[in-house]
């Protein structure tokens, strides 16, 4: 949350709404910080972990296979990732950590051009030349060359769309349409024409505000870092708070942070869900924590007489006496928990719509169909492509898994694996893909139109034939799994940060500082590390 929170009284009773990774980690932090507090976590599904779902199934031959039906990797450079890996180490699971090195094949990335040809994002002089002669580079070099000489916003500090900001800074729409729209498809599953620049592109937004030009600000930062007085290495502000609160060794934490920055991607043996499963197991063994699954919170109430909060469950059971409620569901779901007494608050929360993403997993045993020259993390599709299948991007899971190496917190040299994170031999020939479909591309006239499974799969197969130059026979012979992640990404509309500030203050006033907000709708960003840092910071405010 952006807002301050009140300290919890001794022997307080806390309810946590939502058992995704945000709710789990908030519960973990608070239980470690305050052993006197009784915490009850409520999750409507039978399982915890939220959108992180490493699903174990069998292929057509009866052999076991793990498919990621949600997020699969973490960024090594993030503070949240440092906290995750340190926590896994504390819980004796450091041997499950896997990493991808900077120069690994899996760290290559591609974009799909308007001509349906894959073009590598440059990471060498040769790939730069190929990119420079592709349709995706149109307007890039002239846009960058003139950026410093273009006027800054006529309304400094006022939010606008990402596309408007990019077009103003670079003088054309090609950079937005060919490049940045693809990146935002991958991160937010959303349209840069309607996304808040202040919320989703804060570095560019605030660099322009401070320096009048993104390039000018970047040059100044480079000169300061390259030629300025060298500062001693220290932990970030967030990690300093974590170190003090949990009595961590500063040197060891700094070493881990620096070590993780070397790796663009990290994961776990058994898939990313190994992490929330480990946290859940630890919470199950903590006496002052109770986890209730299969019973969603349907309403929350303020008890003015006792100055506490109550919740009603989908079973119609009502539980009273909470000194604090932590809400980690989306703003849309939160609006349904509030009683009709607060109509204006409900209306305000309903301003935030959420995008639905269809995740399609493909697995073909005993054959590699991704050509060597395009083996990589995968590719994203920009808005300049006609994209009839409404694909946001394609992830090459098998390439990532075969590039994973074991990670030793105390060793700077990761070792090659004989067995991949999915449990399969790294020498085996197989192909595993995840195709992300939809997001804002499913929205028509303010409503989400989800295609029939058969139609969606047929469209995706046709697209993969064209993009990857693979045979329909190989596609038909694979295992296909279709998952609808309904309303999984909040839409960060223009003015979102102002909306969030105002809403948080209204909620705190309405509920007498008895609630706090987490999850993707209220954290710095939608990523797993973002919501974990948010949970850590709020647990520290409450302790």
UniProtKB/TrEMBL annotation:
GO terms for molecular function: oxygen-dependent protoporphyrinogen oxidase activity. Binds 1 FAD per subunit. Its main location: mitochondrion. InterPro entries: Amino_oxidase, FAD/NAD-bd_sf, Protoporphyrinogen_oxidase, Zeta_carotene_desat/Oxidored. Keywords: FAD, Flavoprotein, Heme biosynthesis, Mitochondrion, Oxidoreductase, Porphyrin biosynthesis. One of its GO terms (biological process) is protoporphyrinogen IX biosynthetic process. Pathway: Porphyrin-containing compound metabolism; protoporphyrin-IX biosynthesis; protoporphyrin-IX from protoporphyrinogen-IX: step 1/1. It is an enzyme of class 1 (oxidoreductase). This is Protoporphyrinogen oxidase. The gene is NDAI0E03610.
